[in-house]
């Protein structure tokens, strides 16, 4: 006996089965997609909670370790002030003098034989021997241009609380040990025991890589200690104008940060990579475009200097110190 609609019923059943299978496949794919998305944005899924929690805990522990290291490094970074006095050439004794005051940053990196050693920029602790200014004075034929030359007769470099510190009694005076004017790096020391952080790796041959996370610790404008974070934009850039190798860093910094140490982060470790030397600004503005750092490998030999160089005037005729 033939049943009406038999073939149509079979087709209907087949269609419903295929539809159910398709629905199950879609649900499986949706669940898989949701799980992948959750993993990407950080929302845990059932069955993955323990793994997710371990990853988050590990990341938080690494970040906390870096923060603790930065806290320790901040204690080793100081605001440095240099005051230079100048007298107009030919002026009588007691005539008015010119004073130059500058601020920067110095980093205490070692304690040796009763001295704490710090590294900074040479231009922070060493003002020029002479400065000039131009003056217009009235004369018989109108205004005349007079160039005044001032010669430095005293200079004092000390660690201070900040640029607003006016109490000289608690200043920590430092003396220069070594200097490389071309690299713009200077080593100074003080007999006072200062904090020397051990919370970083001092690999003097380190070469930063593009995109690595980097931190600068210093005194912007001499106002307060500050930590800023950025990335390495161009490591080991050769500047043909100054004939030196520099690390180009995309990070917030300004005047007063000269002499600041910068550190590359690798995992939960900070590596001392160099000393900030100058900033590249947008044209005709004070806004920082890039920070230029001097790599530690270029001045590593200076870090081992422990005694001030003998000035020519302090040496005998044969170049040796007087007995």
The major sheet is characterized as: 8 strands, antiparallel
How many strand elements?
14
For the termini, the CA-CA separation is: 133 Å
The level of helicity is 10-25%
CATH class: Mainly Beta
Shape estimate:
globular
Count of helix runs: 4
Could you tell me the strand content as a percent range? 35-45%
Q: Which runs of at least 5 residues are low in confidence (pLDDT < 50)? A: 1-5, 312-323
Radius of gyration (Å): 32 Å
Query: SS-based structural class?
Result: alpha+beta
CATH architecture: Beta Barrel
Q: What series of H and E elements makes up the topology?
A: HHEEEHEEEEEEEEEEEH
Say what the CATH topology is.
Answer: Thrombin, subunit H
Mean pLDDT: 85
Structurally, the number of domains stands at: 1
Characterise the protein shown here.
Strands 1, 2, 3, 4, 5, 6, 7 and 8 form an eight-stranded antiparallel β-sheet that branches. The chain has helices spanning 6-41, 49-74, 122-125, 296-299; strands at 77-88, 97-112, 115-120, 130-139, 142-160, 172-173, 175-180, 185-190, 213-218, 226-239, 244-250, 261-266, 269-281, 288-295. The protein is α+β, with helices and mostly antiparallel strands and 323 residues long. It has one domain: Thrombin, subunit H (Beta Barrel). The model is unreliable at 1-5 and 312-323 (pLDDT under 50).
